[in-house]
Amino acid sequence: MKTKTIITVVLVGLILVVASCKEKTKQVQKEVTKAIIYPSDVIPFMDEWKILCGDGTKSDSLVNFSKENFFYVENDGETDWVVYKTPNSGVTSRTSSNTRTELGQKAHWIPETGGKLTGTLKVMHVSTTGDAKVSSSYSTVIGQIHSDEGHENEPLKIFYKKFPDHEKGSVFWNYEINTAGDNSGRWDFSTAVWGYDFSNVGTSATSYPKEPEDGIALGEEFSYEVNVFEGMMYLTFKSKGHETVRFEKSLLKSDFSKKADVPEQILNTYYLRGRDGVERDTAYAGEVQYFKQGCYNQANRKSTKSETYGGDIAKQYANGSFAEVWFKEATVGAATSPNND
Amino acid sequence: MKTKTIITVVLVGLILVVASCKEKTKQVQKEVTKAIIYPSDVIPFMDEWKILCGDGTKSDSLVNFSKENFFYVENDGETDWVVYKTPNSGVTSRTSSNTRTELGQKAHWIPETGGKLTGTLKVMHVSTTGDAKVSSSYSTVIGQIHSDEGHENEPLKIFYKKFPDHEKGSVFWNYEINTAGDNSGRWDFSTAVWGYDFSNVGTSATSYPKEPEDGIALGEEFSYEVNVFEGMMYLTFKSKGHETVRFEKSLLKSDFSKKADVPEQILNTYYLRGRDGVERDTAYAGEVQYFKQGCYNQANRKSTKSETYGGDIAKQYANGSFAEVWFKEATVGAATSPNND
């Protein structure tokens, strides 16, 4: 009798516990069965952006939006990442012959009011084909400041580039002059962060410089911060096991307004091809800008002579003719005083 | 023997279930016992702002921030609201003799790049004392565009004002000219949304105009949208049971640049007191601006002759010498094309 009582009590207790537990389990399952994780679930700033994908897909409402094969979420076993992927040949924007799966900031600003963009990412792939003598071969742009008036030039492009035979690639950033007068004389001044800058190219179409020391491998995580505060652009690059690197550049006062100011790097490259401009004195002062972030593939058929398989995207993806970048964290917003860092 | 086995199985089962359930219960309790709901839990845009409270409290990190008696969350039985409350006398900003519990936008912009601010609110209280002949008596400003350079004037102030004996008050907006030359000639042109504009005052310190028809009562919900797109300011005001009202005003080209353009409203008020300026031709073009939102109390001891109880905040709160505004929704961000609305 005593034994039976115990059993009954235990059973009732068990049933109550199981019943209340079931309720909770149901809720948990409901969350799990939410069919798809969107980029906006991983990086919550998506309402601040529009997108152009490598197949020409455009959207200006990116909350709960994804596009198969171009803009979606992958999990690497630890973390959800937003994937930006785009082939060497696809549909391009009005002003470019390069495809992109890239965000464009809705809010616009001028250097004087500024803004801040951050990103933590790993580049998973760049085009494996191209002419080694061309600076933009095997590279993709992972963040930009883009002008929306005048020449619509780019005060900042952050690049990742890796030569085909190398394990490690380079991260560098380019400043495009806001050309005085005709924009046909424009050029990009490039600065290495880790590895080489843009100007380091092969001696022939198929010969590569030696592998950079302190380079960044495909799949290796790094982060950048672009903070334009009161007209000064502050850049910070960080990666575990690498030196943190910082830069400052005024967007209000040119460093390149006289022929005598033009750097050796430019005289040895652009100037030889007749791209021999100088910059307006006030650089990008007062000119409307916006940020871009994602994967702006610099490989194409024309200038880098990269494989494009007649524009067949599936074939390009299957044969290395694409660029792919994964971001796990990113922010966009107001500039911050660099003294508060 | 069989009975004993059953008991053992049941007990082991019970222990396992209880153990796994306890884990979940702990998590649930953790969420519930989160002691306080912050304004940033109600309106998620708080990372875009800093604040100045009516007692001089300042903060530029408003995530999980609240300030008792000034900036906190109230529930009206249905909805959580962010409360902005401030006395007639307290600590003021550098450029004002009025206290405020008000957000200031971190990101700055110019009219050409623009921006958008929205808010859904109810005004719960305005000062019950003051001189009825003074336009700013019994009023509070609930949203602004504020210039950050030049004269630091205000292209937009949205007001709520209610005379002490009235049940219904007025919503109106003021445009302050970006004065040509010396700013001592500046003035505000006021436009009624519902009820009266700023210029409608009492004939003596204690006599009020008749109650406005179609006014807004304390506790009555309404919303505003301020969208500055390509230099044009688009205003939309909505409230259930009231007509939706829209306005457009250029911030790039003045309507008031010649004496002949000065409106009757201004000639009959400011001009009689020697505030007889005109506006620069280009209005606020190219001038850095930011949004403000909250409660900027227009009552004070000096100009509106409102009660301040020697600056004792508890006494002011107990005796109607304060303003209090509740917001339940608000957004700030990029401008949108008015054609997409």
Any descriptors?
33% strand; Jelly Rolls; homodimer; alpha+beta; 341 residues; seven-stranded antiparallel sheet; 13% helix; disordered N terminus
Question: What's a quick, concise take on this entry?
Answer:
The structure is a homodimer of 341-residue chains. The first copy, chain A, is 13% helix and 33% strand.
Can you characterise this structure?
Two copies of one chain form a homodimer. The first copy, chain A, is of the alpha+beta class. Chain A has two domains: 35 residues; 300 residues, Jelly Rolls (Sandwich). Chain A is 13% helix and 33% strand. Chain A contains four helices and 16 strands. In chain A, strand 1 and strand 2 form a beta hairpin. The N and C termini of chain A lie far apart (73 Å). Chains A and B meet through helix 1 of A and helix 1 of B.
Strand content of chain A: 25-35%
What is the strand tally of chain A?
16
Largest interface, with Cβ-Cβ < 8 Å?
A-B, 29 and 31 residues
Category by helix and strand content of chain A: alpha+beta
Q: How is the main sheet of chain A built?
A: 9 strands, antiparallel
Helical content of chain A (DSSP H or I, runs of 4+): 10-25%
The name CATH uses for the topology of the largest domain in chain A is Jelly Rolls
General shape of chain A = globular
Rounded to the nearest angstrom, the distance between the terminal CA atoms of chain A is 73 Å
Oligomer type: homodimer
GO molecular function (chains A, B): hydrolase activity, hydrolyzing O-glycosyl compounds; lyase activity
Domain Alginate lyase (chains A, B): 47-332
Protein name (chains A, B): Polysaccharide lyase family 7 protein
InterPro entries (chains A, B): Alginate_lyase_2 (IPR014895), ConA-like_dom_sf (IPR013320)
